[in-house]
Specification:
- The chain has 157 residues and is of the alpha+beta class.
- It has one domain.
- A 7-stranded mixed β-sheet has the order 1-3-9-5-6-7-2. It has a two-stranded antiparallel sheet with strand order 4-8.
- It is globular.
Length: 157
Amino acid sequence: MRKSKNVLAFHEEVTVGPLVSSFTTEDLTTQPYLAVDLHPELLEAVEADPTEAVKFRSFELVRGASNLNIQKELPAENCEAALWQAALLTGNQKNGEQGSLTTEFGRANLFFLADCVIRVWWDGTQRVWNIRDWDPGMGYWEKGDRIFCPVDPRLLQ
């Protein structure tokens, strides 16, 4: 029996937003349900103007994989997310409720930005969502981790 080379399995499609007012660094860092550990230059780039909703496809890792192997399988040429999108998703699950983000112990939710990967995970002991940036060359993720990729509207036409 030949082993599949795929590392991603489709999980669900989810809509994030719309963003009805500007999103700022303060919006990210003052939420009681968020523990944010991001490089200062990334925090400076958080701001976003109001925008339409964004559709995402989420995938689950069927086995451990590096960032490079994950990115090779993502469906869109540009799978770049934004911090406000991850923050809005955590806001839908402020107390660790079940939802689009995995809350399973030890599992991560991953969003690929231009220069880094954002890891979002639920800490059931502290009762907060953790948001941390990772160097894209250093990431190796485990089976069950969830990857979020914005759907390129051109692919839906």
